[in-house]
From TrEMBL:
GO terms for molecular function: molybdenum ion binding. GO terms for biological process: nitrogen fixation. This is Nitrogen fixation protein NifQ. The lineage of its organism: Bacteria, Pseudomonadati, Pseudomonadota, Alphaproteobacteria, Rhodospirillales. It comes from the Bacteria.
Length: 190
């Protein structure tokens, strides 16, 4: 029996071969998220939390032959009352995006939608490993990613950035190294 990682990589290769690609950065990661969303893994819907027009534009940008499916659950995954938080995350990501074209805005929106989930960010995005999320962050939001010098878990890191922007410091320890919650913020993500 093949391991899940081998099956995922084969699925991704078949998808890329079937739909053609424009050779854009992050295309393999977009495929991972699309395949996971279609399989209802992670918190993203089939349109990855994007409005229909943005999803259609994203598919044209990355793929030559990918029909946009109708009738897909497309609502944003954020719970009631979290819109201000979503807006703050979106501003943080957009202001630190690498690609200044539309793809950076789409990726910011997708990451914000996934941040509203309850699992590790890579899982909520439907990526297949934390390493894929790290590649996405460095490719799409390089200035922000470079600030994660201690390899903090990405969702924790993004929220810590928001707190610092607002001058709110909820951690009581003088440094992360002596904090009792160190394993929560920096431990392995399995």
């Amino acid at each position: 029996m093949k391991s899940p990682k081998i099956r995922f990589n084969q699925s991704r290769r078949r998808f890329l071969a079937r739909h053609g690609v424009h050779g854009r950065e992050n295309v393999e990661l977009i495929v991972s998220m699309l395949l996971s969303a279609r399989a209802k893994e992670g918190v993203l819907s089939g349109w990855m939390g994007l409005p229909a027009g943005d999803f259609a534009a994203l598919t044209r940008y990355y793929f030559r032959r990918l029909p946009v499916q109708g009738g897909i659950r497309r609502g944003a995954p954020y719970p009631d009352g979290r819109m201000p938080e979503w807006d703050d995350l979106y501003r943080l990501l957009v202001n630190n995006r690498g690609p200044k074209d539309r793809s950076g805005r789409w990726l910011a929106r997708i990451v914000c939608n996934a941040c509203m989930g309850q699992n590790h960010l890579w899982q909520d995005l439907g990526l297949w490993s934390r390493g894929e999320l790290t590649r996405l962050m460095y490719g799409a939001f390089p200035a922000l990613a470079r600030r994660n010098v201690h390899d903090m878990k990405w969702k924790k890191f993004l929220y810590k950035q928001l707190c610092q922007m607002e001058g709110v410091y909820i951690c009581r320890a003088p440094s992360c190294d002596v904090c009792v919650d160190y394993p929560v913020c920096f431990g392995p993500e399995q």
